[in-house]
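User: F-box protein At5g07610, Coffea arabica:
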Amino acid sequence: MDRGKRPGKYVGATNHKIYMDLKDIIREHALQYLPAKSLFRFQSVCRDWKLQISSPFFAHNQSHSFRSILGLFGQTPGEPPSFLSFDAKSCGVPDPLLMFIPEPVEILSSSNGLLCCKSCSVEKVYYICNPVTQQWKKLPKSNAHHGSDPAIVLVFEPSLLNFDADFKLICAFPSNDFDDAIEFEIYSSRDGSWKTSGEICFASKTLVPTSGIHVKNVVYWNLKQGGVLAFDLIKDRSQLIQGYYGAKGTLGNVNGKLCSVSWCGRELYLHALANVHSNTMQMTSHVKMWEQKHVVLESRFLGGDVADAKVIFAGGDMLVIQCRSSIYLHNLKTQETKALSILIKNHSRCLPYVNGIVNI
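Assistant: Predicted structure for F-box protein At5g07610:
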């Protein structure tokens, strides 16, 4: 009889051991997938969790593991920035006005927890900052004149193999040496300096400065005359791409592909870039440059007329749509649309934000 009871005691002891180790499993394998505001709250759970979350190696892992867009930085011309959280309990920043930067700034670009800002002073210098940790870095003055509204894109792609938070700034600007030409200047945090590319795009085109986006080592901008300008960071080459609906389409990164989201009538369409070389193929070829992926939304789901609606972000499985002062989230997988209980000024510029704790 005693022997018959021993297996039950052994199993019970084993289950007890597994249960006691659950806190370690969460600490080592789950915390890094949470946004910054939640992590700071969880520091009070126990001493081990506080030490884990406070370590530089954890910040490095979290910047690689957590990529969800949970908020927007918005800014109206002439006013300080503000932060709009999709979930105020889990995502937030301690200083949404960015007062920790030593001078007033204008937000230009966002990438995986980092912001690129331009000073509002006459000097027009660039800052890179993390609004969660309130760390900032003033960049050296660029070699070229980027203009009052620079077409600049911040590229920060965290890697587990690279402990340093290396980033790049890419700016397309009108050439000072050639009429109707566009040049490119790149800042590398690894080199700590600006470099003007040897590539020059000779085309009578004007960029939409706020449209820039990065997808797999290529930066894209909408053109006011229609189409898209691409600059390959690896090949150091530019290319003009026929686009959908010209400058009206919002560029985004959906499943690792460049996409253009545009209103057509009272419906919103998403087209993904399928083949940039389709215009060089035979006329009988059925290969298309752009493929329609979804008829994602009808304007009746929004609270206003389609003329008042614009897509301010397209990425992953999510679209963020502004209709007058209201914000809507649309899930591309479930096709569900929901209104958020946040308001924004109609003329504000909005940038997607990842709540990360990366150190710069």
